[in-house]
Amino acid sequence: MSGPPPIVGADVSGSALKIIRLRLKPAAEKAVRSGHPWVYADSVREQSADGMNSDLAVVYDRADRFLAAGIYDPDSPIRVRIVHVGKPRPIDRKFWADRMRAAIGSREPLFDAGTTGYRLINGESDGFPGFVLDRYDGVQVLKLYTAAWFPRLPEMLELVGVATDDRPLVLRLARNLQAVAEAGYGLRDGQILCGGEIAEKIVFRENGLRFHADVVKGQKTGFFLDQRDNRRRVGTLAAGRHVLNCFSFSGGFSLYAARGGAASVSDLDISRHALDAAQANFELNHDISEVAGCGHRLIQGNAFDWLKSTVEARFDLLVLDPPSLAKKKADREGAAKAYRQLSAAGIRRLRKDGILVSASCSAHIGRDEFFDLVVGTARDSGRRFHEIGREGHAPDHPATFPEAAYLKCAYLQFEG
Fold this sequence. Notes:
about 425 residues, 11 helices, 20 strands
């Protein structure tokens, strides 16, 4: 490949990492210029050499001008994950250290001692593509979504330690990375990378409530931190209401509702393990009089089936927070149908003045599309209603490109 020599440096001392030069197809070049952080394999028009895992990819535009730099992953459909766009600059230790300090420092004003579980680095949206760092009180959890970080992990761990006072750190890996991580790098999901032994479950605080997080084996990094603000809002709406929390997982929405003065809360989940976790979280907060005095029911079952078949059950506030129903684009149509079915079934279970809280974490269902289908289903019910809110991620989960804006939550109140 002809063209100018690389003009962005990489800190590759003591490693086999190198710099490769790429040019992209026009649509991909336009997307990168506008800030999208992913370059797909089929968008690469030409490159100077075969790239190895974690190489620095320097992208030039059609006029041989520097466009962007990213980390290379030869085994992923996302071939390059962009880390810098604009004027050329060294991608070295100082680059990563400055970026890490900025990301972690931006969280400091968001929380007080009542919240000790939150996201410190949110992947692409904080300039660390495929790299997520969460805090659970005195323990940190790093989750990786690309193997491109494996060769850079020692440096990243050192920088995290400097930025966060060397708290214990647990490594979590996306499922598709686990085999290559162990075979090629001796890394495994749930491994404690530094800081010594930790408890099997970590207790952390969220807006004054206490929760367990299974940081070694639990879903995501141990808890669904992204729903923090929606849980808090449900708590403000729950006073005097009988609440059903569908797909309840470890009972977060229910616990907030109980503290908010709910008359009763019911957790519905297909997993016995999830229901046991919800019960444990309630017991953890029994020193709060509202929680101790709230009736708490556990229901094991498939939420779709239970809502359809249990026709006599009625509630004043109903939360629908299913797992992702569209993991790929091909799932979109089926997911949209499922969200409509859930919303319709939930609406039928609401009493007069009841509130529906319907959430989606499916990135392939857009924000406007999701709100339209929930509101459309409400209109089709024939009941009078009004919207009382539309929400998204908590502020420690910024979303700077469309695929990152996965979380949507609609609040509807039914008058009749």
